[in-house]
Amino acid sequence: MSKLRAFVAGTLLLAAVPAWCSGPESPVAFQAPWWGPESSVLYAGFYGIRGPQKWEDAVAGLEFRGGPFWWQLRLMAGALAASDGNFFVYAGLLADVPVANFLHFILSFAPGLGASGTDHQLGIPLDFRSTAEISVRLTAETRLGISFSHISNGKLASPNPGVETLSLTLTVLALPY
Fold this sequence. Notes:
mainly beta; 177 residues; 51% strand; 8-stranded antiparallel barrel; globular; disordered N terminus
């Protein structure tokens, strides 16, 4: 429980330091077409934050996000791997909503294919990932954030245990073409 408190406290401190973030006069560095990658996200954190093996496994992933195609909706695709052997490849939609000039709230949903590891058995290869993320703009091209994800088989198989992840995210905008 103390690890969770330290992680949350660090995130709150990070969110409270927007003074050195870019101001409203700084334009968006790059905006890709809806079908092209606009940003990449590298994330790492804890895999399985509830259940009998909670806080024992690590996760790392890479995600590519496209430009907006309607309002703030974007296409995304990515992959993650956990230290217990779980692997998940996914593609879906996300909404990237700017709350303030320096703060973004991101919601995403993605179906994908996964391989179960030793600790967290999800039942079938078809799984679904839902994520909520809050990120702070560091510069015009980078954001740092925290995300919470849930992966499950959507009750397509029994049992449907699901697994949650808590991750620190680094988003790099303005991918070079």
